[in-house]
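Hi F.,

I've been meaning to write this up properly since the lab meeting, where we talked about keeping a consistent format for the predictions we share between groups. The idea is simple: the sequence comes first, exactly as it goes in, then the structure tokens exactly as they come out, then a line or two of notes. No screenshots and no reformatting. I'm using this chain as the first example so we have something concrete to point to.
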Amino acid sequence: MDRVYESEVSKKAELTKILEADPYAEDAFARVGYKMKDGTAVGEDKEKVYIYVSASEEFIKKADEKLGDLAKPASDEVAKRVIEKIEEEESTVAAGVSMFGD
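Output, unedited:
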């Protein structure tokens, strides 16, 4: 299950603390992986920060609770655009790495 959260850029430090807390815990964001991007980096609102998580439905429910009032799920349209930008960025990086890997 994919979920994109959005929050005010002013809350980025607080979000980072939650996202990086106890990386070895079973339900840690670090274990499932996440991407945090400023709005300008993904062509969205410059006053926002976006967090992309791809995990089980159970983890997403816990993530909703952990992020609480700091970040809310983005609208479907925004989430789709953010995910597309992140995937596009990752495929560009992968192509560059394979070019130098030979």
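Notes:
Residues 46 and 54 are 23 Å apart (CA to CA).
The first strand starts at residue 2 and ends at 8.

If this format works for you, I'll send the rest the same way.

G.
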